[in-house]
């Protein structure tokens, strides 16, 4: 689904929902509310929106989920009295005209409030990233299959003392594909509920609420198991405990410890998947609860060559396979994210040529509207002494008459001088030491 489509689809569905709600077609309204929220959650997770826009969408989701819960209760009890519509409410998440839950139980109302806050963490639509889309990282993929896919497909294999992994930590330099691997897990684990949470989902300004959010996250996972809880940048929540920690921070870490492996908590069918760039700051007790700790290293030269090919995509270029292999060798120490930034800069080089050119020449090329048709009066930038050169600048060229210059090897090498790798030797040495002490290669 292309950028923005999920959000528009969600808006269309909740518009239908409110219309059906007003017409007292409550069953139809419930259906539209629930599906509309699914599209909103997908838009928040996988489409580019500002933090303010995401907060607005999240608030709407809380409101629509609240209305859906009231409709469920109404339909279950088959009440005959009309219901007041509260679906247009803002971000408070309270039930219309009533501060308490319908049951009058304040504890249930509080739990529902926390579940509403966490609803945005549930990935309802799969990200569509397959195992084969992840280059290399075979050990990491095998460990995740052991922990997620096999127990669901062959539950009889995991009885007695043979138990699936309950916690897996993916660690390594930034930009090496840790979060991308998590998306592959979400796609491949068809029968699992996937919770993708960050520290901001679990932090609250209200005293005591953060640890309750953690507890409710695990309760939600138990209710919807088999479940996967993916915590990106887990170090921001679970760094080593010390005297300088605030009381709130200590309580959150303690709650994590209790929930991940606490007495009386059922952790069957729940996998906690963590990702971090700085694993050495994790609290030792939290680290122990991640039974598998897998190093996701910087890509090797062949993988880097593939990354260049993927990043360039269908942009017109004149690179040969041997050029891509050479680029793979020239980018030792670059992460996948670094290569993406490098290619983005290189793709701008032809645009810069157009901007700075003092001479253009007439050439032939395929029509933009019909690639099979050749157009003869196009212009491209050229050297002042080139055959057929005309002294002019880009402002004198009509928009549709400009032929896009091809991205060349020299363009990428020019960008290679200015775009440097983001991972330094000191960080790599610390990661290697952590791998030697506590981890395994991915």
- Fraction of residues in helices? 40-55%
How far apart lie the N and C ends? Answer: 31 Å
Corresponding CATH architecture of the largest domain = 3-Layer(aba) Sandwich
Count of extended strands: 10
Number of helical segments with 4 or more residues: 16
How would you concisely characterize the structure shown here?
By secondary structure, this protein is an alpha/beta fold. 48% of the residues lie in helices and 11% in strands.
How would you describe this structure to a colleague?
By secondary structure, the chain is α/β, with parallel strands linked by helices. It folds into 3 domains: 5-86, Phosphotransferase system, lactose/cellobiose-type IIA subunit (Methane Monooxygenase Hydroxylase, Chain G, domain 1); 131-298 and 434-441, 3-Layer(aba) Sandwich (Rossmann fold), CATH 3.40.50.300; 301-418, Helicase, Ruva Protein, domain 3, CATH 1.10.8.60. The protein has helices spanning 5-22, 26-46, 51-77, 106-118, 138-153, 178-188, 199-202, 209-223, 247-261, 284-289, 301-312, 321-330, 336-347, 349-356, 409-418, 425-438, and strands spanning 122-123, 167-171, 193-197, 227-232, 270-276, 292-295, 359-366, 374-382, 390-391, 440-441. A 7-stranded mixed β-sheet has the order 1-3-4-5-2-6-10, sandwiched between helices. A 3-stranded antiparallel β-sheet has the order 8-7-9, with no helix packed on it. Strand 7 and strand 8 form a beta hairpin. Helix 2 runs antiparallel to helix 3 (51-77), helix 8 (209-223) runs parallel beside helix 9 (247-261) and helix 13 crosses helix 15. It is globular and about 80 Å long.
């Amino acid at each position: 689904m292309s950028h923005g489509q999920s959000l528009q689809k969600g808006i269309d569905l909740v518009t239908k929902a409110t219309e059906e709600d007003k017409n007292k077609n409550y069953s139809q309204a419930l259906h539209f509310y629930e599906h509309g929220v699914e599209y909103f959650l997908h838009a928040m997770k996988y489409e580019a929106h500002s933090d303010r826009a995401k907060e607005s969408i999240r608030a709407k989701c809380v409101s629509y989920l609240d209305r859906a819960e009231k409709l469920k209760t109404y339909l279950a009890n088959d009440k005959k009295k009309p219901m007041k519509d509260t679906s247009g409410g803002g971000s408070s998440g309270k039930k219309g005209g009533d501060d308490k839950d319908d049951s009058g139980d304040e504890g249930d109302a509080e739990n529902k409030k926390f579940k509403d806050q966490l609803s945005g963490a549930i990935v309802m639509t799969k990200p569509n990233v397959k195992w084969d889309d992840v280059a290399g990282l075979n050990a990491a993929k095998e460990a995740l299959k052991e922990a997620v896919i096999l127990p669901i497909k062959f539950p009889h294999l995991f009885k007695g003392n043979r138990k699936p992994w309950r916690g897996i930590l993916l660690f390594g330099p930034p930009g090496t594909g840790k979060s991308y691997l998590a998306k592959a897990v979400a796609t491949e684990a068809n029968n699992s509920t996937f919770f993708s949470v960050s520290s901001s989902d679990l932090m609250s300004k209200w005293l005591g609420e953060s640890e309750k959010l953690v507890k409710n996250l695990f309760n939600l996972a138990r209710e919807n198991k088999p479940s996967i809880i993916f915590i990106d940048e887990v170090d921001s929540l679970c760094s080593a405990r010390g005297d300088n920690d605030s009381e709130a921070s200590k309580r959150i870490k303690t709650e994590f410890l209790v929930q991940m492996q606490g007495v009386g908590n059922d952790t069957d069918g729940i996998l906690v998947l963590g990702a971090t760039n700085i694993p050495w700051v994790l609290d030792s007790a939290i680290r122990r609860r991640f039974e598998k700790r897998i190093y996701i290293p910087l890509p090797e030269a062949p993988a880097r060559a593939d990354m260049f090919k993927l990043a360039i995509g269908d942009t017109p270029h004149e690179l040969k396979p041997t050029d891509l292999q050479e680029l793979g060798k020239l980018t030792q120490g670059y992460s996948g994210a670094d290569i993406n930034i490098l290619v983005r800069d290189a793709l701008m080089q032809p645009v810069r040529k157009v901007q700075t050119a003092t001479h253009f020449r007439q050439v032939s090329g395929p029509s933009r509207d019909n690639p099979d048709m050749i157009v003869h009066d196009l212009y491209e930038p050229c050297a002042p002494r080139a055959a057929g050169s005309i002294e002019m600048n880009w402002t004198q060229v009509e928009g549709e008459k400009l032929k896009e210059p091809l991205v060349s090897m020299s363009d990428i090498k020019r960008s290679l001088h200015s775009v440097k790798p983001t991972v330094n030797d000191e960080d790599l040495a610390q990661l290697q030491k952590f791998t030697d002490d506590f981890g395994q290669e991915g």
